[in-house]
Amino acid sequence: MRIERNRVGGGRDRPLQMPMMIVTKKIKLSTKGDTDIINITAEAASAVLNSGLKNGSVAVFVPGSTGGITTVEYEPGLVEDLKTFFEKIAPKSGAYQHNIRWQDGNGYSHVRASFLGPGITVPFVDNKMLLGKWQQIVFIDFDNRPRDREIIIQITGE
């Protein structure tokens, strides 16, 4: 925070308020569905870098109810572990009331996405996201078919 000095006798110093800015960008993806895990760290970092903002936070969000966003160490072993984990907690072959009602076969997709959540927020300083050394942002498409997806990147800062 910058401090503005009061130049008129006897007053107190006060913080100089910087205007808060919001920049919204979109990432378009084509997925395979079926717990397709896609590293979107580079796209989020590029959005922050090109936002014109130096410090703040970036929200990464997927509209829809069969996809999720999280951070992981994006490496082949962990990618397979995640797929195995989601199959255990919400198996494709499970009995889902959603499937009975809608006949679309993706009840498991909705359950998996509900566990993961649709977005995350990451702080950034000097145009750089403050992710850990092995931490990447990933989108997971749980739907039972390939999809064209749009990820919302909203950057707030100064």
Strand content: 35-45%
Tally of alpha and pi helices: 4
Give the spatial strand order of the biggest sheet. Answer: 3-10-5-7-8
Provide mean pLDDT, rounded.
Answer: 92
Question: Could you say which overall geometry the principal axes of the C-alpha atoms support?
Answer: elongated
Which structural class best describes the helix and strand composition? alpha+beta
Note the gap between the termini: 11 Å
Note poorly predicted spans.
none
Q: Give the tally of β-strands.
A: 10
Helicity range of the residues? 10-25%
Tag the structure with descriptive keywords.
158 residues; five-stranded antiparallel sheet; three-stranded antiparallel sheet
Brief summary of the model shown:
By secondary structure, the chain is α+β, with helices and mostly antiparallel strands.
